Amino acid sequence: MSSNSTQHALATLGDAVGRGLLAGLAGTAAITISQMIEMYFTKREPSPAPAKVAGQVLGVAPSNKTETAELRGEPVEPGKTNRQVKEEHTERFANLMHWQYGTSWGIGRGLLSAVGVTGWPATAIHFGSIWTTAMVMLPAANASEPVTEWSPKQIAVDALHHGVYALAAGLVFDYINEGHVLRKSDKPKRYPYIHEGYDYVEP
Hints:
Elements: H1 2-42, H2 49-58, H3 65-72, H4 82-114, H5 119-140, H6 152-190
């Protein structure tokens, strides 16, 4: 019985994490589109914040032309300067970290479901956690000014982007979760001879 309980707990956790990652991926796609639209109208350049934070945490930094050539042992980007190559590598690294960070935050949405928090309350908690972390982490890593120095417009835009993320991740998670619950609840009807404590493996 103890073994079955452990297996059930691990299966529940694994299901929640997997669904959360899919939801996080969807949320990251949504916030990316939201930011692209905002940058189009405001003419704002892409933020290097993900690269700065990840660089400090991982102890790495995007290389310039000379450094890249030394690493590869051959010339690279002959028509570009050191600065151009480093800017391209920084943008690429920032995008990579942006998608990794956003997708991994979906795990939080999954864990909320695992402890019984679902729907709009889970989405609200998810949003608050993500936005609060960003407002604390970015200034701490010198990737942005302290939130106390942000303008009301900056705060509103940032809240909007994170709200789009949380909403999209929540909708996708609940959609996947609903299908998962329906599939589980359907089994006793289809297989009434299955008793509690025994698993049925579909052919």
